Known about the structure:
globular, four-stranded mixed beta sheet, alpha/beta, UDP-N-acetylmuramoyl-L-alanine:D-glutamate ligase, 24% strand, 13 strands
Amino acid sequence: MRRVYTVGETVYDIIFKNNVPVEGKPGGALLNSAVTLGRLGVPVCMVGDYADDQIGRIIDQFLKDNGVDIQHVTRYDNARSRLALAFLDENNNAEYSFYKIRKQGKLHVNFPEIEKGDIVLFGSFYGIKPEIREDLRSFLLKAREKEALVVYDPNFREAHKRDLPELMPFIRENVSFADVVKGSDEDFRYIWGCQTPEQAYERLLEIGSPTLVYTANRKGVNVINRKLNKHYDVPQISPVSTVGAGDTFNAGIVYGLYRHEIAKAQVQDLDEAIWDDLVVFPICFSKDVCLSYENYVSVGLAKTISLGSVL
């Protein structure tokens, strides 16, 4: 059976509006994606780590309750789980402060044995974290050897720009492993100084040949590959929170690839008609997330989609 693996950090998100905490819930970019996929009935496994403390146990139960396999999550004794504070501005876009996991000794990630046809979604700071780099690289090499389909989101934050020279080799290598790179206009501006999706795609082609899915908030989405360069408009909404929007967008890409049974060998040459169908899911999912303080697609929408309703 084809499986999806999401590889990334888990945190507990505390959301502030007007400097007052208004919501708290399990989070982290790849956890958010995993929960959306679990709610949609996709066989998804979270690969990552957190402490065996009260926060960790909350996250543990939440993942189980939402259909996410946690057999490849490492839990640390005598440690404290990560926290992420999200401060919403007047447009309900978030600025973050992160509190790292506190433990003694080396971080350990229990990577799975990948199989042909599986899908791997990874990225964010976990994708360029020096402490786990060698283990992650070995896993991605196996994914390539097994012809798994790999989706990468750099999700690169402005706070890390000062470390870019050190991190750039990791970002470039991640792109070389990827079949699809999803990135925002901010990602490409911070990393390579790109101002357009075409400039971003040219930078990717210098490294590999992934399909680019380029997001620009209200300005919409561009999909570029060897056969296609197409812009997609997005609904204009007044968001409640944008905290999980990009993560759930990623889940929508993976869900579309899974639902359409797209293999690694096919993804670079998907034509316009298929992308027209695929891109509906990420746009719909991110809109749904932006209309609440949830970081994942709502249970109601997930149930509607799993019943086969057309978006």
